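User: Study the shape:
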Amino acid sequence: MPGYSTRSEKVYVGGLTYRLRVLSDKQQFTDPDGHARRLGISPAQWSLFGQIWPSGRLLAQAMLREDIAGRRILELGCGIGLASLVLQRRGANVVASDMHPLTESFLAYNAALNALPVVRYRALRWDVPTPSLGHFDLIIASDVLYERDQAWLLAGVVERHADRKAEVLVTDPGSGHCADFNRMLAAQGFALDEVRCPMDDNDVPPYRGRLLRYQR
């Protein structure tokens, strides 16, 4: 037994069905060798990678419309990896990344569930420079701005891995540190275009969801 339980979920993106293995609930936790603890993942945070969040759905929908021709794309904090699976189905040059010890196996399993080739994956800590990862034309992420430290770390990853002419696309449910991240990317030469979006079918204007596109 792996020490955690899972369930199957169907998600519809652009009229297509994605079958996904996710954690059965937010109470799941197992860290027998202390790997997650050494990475700084607390028991309360451990299960978050294995859920499907509204911002993740929003990012996946955005990837249906994104220009992928000739672009190298990096997803940060991919979790279950729905956006990367959408890009993989479109034939994009995408690399998914996360720091959770189980992300790679869940991502590979979910690619197989959808008859897709395995998505290229890199274990990536935002506080550890990884020069071998290279540079990207488009960097995407969802639900990554809940804490100021996250905004600062994410801006550092962008600085190290965004190409000279690059875009960054972040979906966010209205967390408190977008303004910090906006200032940090402005200092790197990025201009912001923000679109407010409904996070679910019950959301009404003014929408709390944000689709943040940074360009330079």
Summary: The first strand starts at residue 6 and ends at 13. Residues 148-161 form the longest helix (14 residues).
